[in-house]
Amino acid sequence: MKVAVAGCCHGALDKMYETLELLQRRHNVRPDLLLCCGDFQAVRNEADLRCMAVPAKYRHMQTFYRYYSGEKRAPVLTVFIGGNHEASNHLQELPYGGWVAPNIYYLGYAGVVRFRGVRIGGISGIFKSHDYRKGHFECPPYNQQTIRSAYHVRNIEVFKLKQLKRPMDIFMSHDWPRSIYHYGNKKQLLKMKSFFRQEVESNTLGNPAASELLQHLKPTYWFSAHLHVKFAAFMQHETSSKEELPKATKFLALDKCLPHRDFLQIIEVEHDPNTGDSLEYDAEWIAVLKATNSLVNVTQSSWNMPEKNSLHAKWDYSVTDEAIKEVLEELNHNLTIPCNFTLTAACYDPSKPQKNMQPVHTINPQTTKFCAQFGLTDINDRIQQAKEEGSGQGECEDEEEMDSNGSAEEPSEYNTDNSGLSSINPDEIMLDEEGGDEDLSTCSVDPSPDHPPEFSTSFSDIRIMPDSMAVSFDDAMDSNNEDLEKSGGSKQGEEKSSTDRRLKRIGGDENGNSGIKKIKRRNQAIYAAEEEDK
């Protein structure tokens, strides 16, 4: 099965799909699935633009609205996660995932699905330590703080993913797992992005939570975006016992969408030929959602996840085979995700712009049905109830922080927020943390041109990768192997081919163990004109 993987899309869906069509015409390669690693920007109208955390000059309608309205249809099944430049009000409607347009599926705050037997997981947003232990309390209309905190990773999503035991084939995060740069060509990375040096040398570049998830899930592939640079790495995981087969993860970070190179990769993934072409629920993930439903928090109070200590009577929320079997029986062994996309907002009309349109808090019927089917808490419904009871956003500022047992605040597992850059990254949108020059009432609704320029005849924006990852392991390692202490690099040449064979599997046989992490960063001139990019 051919899988296309894209970096930051930034709403340029027409360009992305036209690139795939060009790939088919010129190379007779047609992907079966497209994955996008965040900053997708599912902007439906002018109100959505106001909910996107970018300076006003970068707020452009782009082309998603054409797919939302039905004017166009995604030519390939597209699955994406959220980043830090999104129409947060739109994605917030689907905390457990759902269709944002026909054939375009959002994984939610965190999620796991299956396609042709391949298990695909992901976590949305970026890491910010001071919001990590809070609940999802934000709702539109956002203020200068909540328009940012809405896309910050929360510990409950990480905790849920840590309960998974069955093997993961593909995992996506927007920001990079911290320390992953030690497993690739670090010299080349710093040559391209010299302003990363301080964070790389202090090992503070990246998402500390995603790093734990990488060690726990041990997926065959891990894809990220966010930093607008292509980077490959190969991480050999330690085994917990002599009986356990060695596992390794092929990591790839992708650049942003056109006109930049390397924003798209094609990989060949082994799949189950006996399965259909529908996107499916993952039974273990549904069981975990049910098991952890009592932990849902919609307040600003800090909330520590259960740990094996005297404060928590229960800390293991992983699920049994029996619980997974119950999910399968509930669904009559039909895991197909229903194609129940519904319009929940007016669509942008270029002939009738509505620059004063305001965002509203919406409960999506897809979420209502999903929660009713599996007995889950509808987070948005809970937020609305809290607002009606007078305990909505903005009223917890002076409350003493409490953990999930109601006791005084425990120290955070991440004491210092080093996930951002102390140096200036010229390839990222810079947002003033105090919200200085950002005007939430301003937006531009100029759509992209109907007929974008012809693509370069060099076709440099595509990288076709047959069988596993076509990125050379030599490219992922420093020439002197100084960065291979953790990945067993001295044996790389001998083990490469056998490891490749082991990695090509369908999720479902082995167990993983550990945790997750995510980074935080601000993408920059992504929306700028092509001349600026050059």
From TrEMBL:
Stretches the record annotates as Disordered: 386-518
Molecular-function GO term, any one: RNA lariat debranching enzyme activity
Alphabetized Gene3D superfamilies for the sequence: 3.60.21.10
Compartments where located: Nucleus
GO cellular component assignments: nucleus
InterPro entries referenced in this protein's UniProt entry, alphabetically: Calcineurin-like_PHP, DBR1_C, Dbr1_N, Metallo-depent_PP-like
Cofactor needs: Fe(2+); Mn(2+); Zn(2+)
Family per record: Belongs to the lariat debranching enzyme family.
Protein name: DBR1 enzyme
Protein encoded by which gene: Dbr1
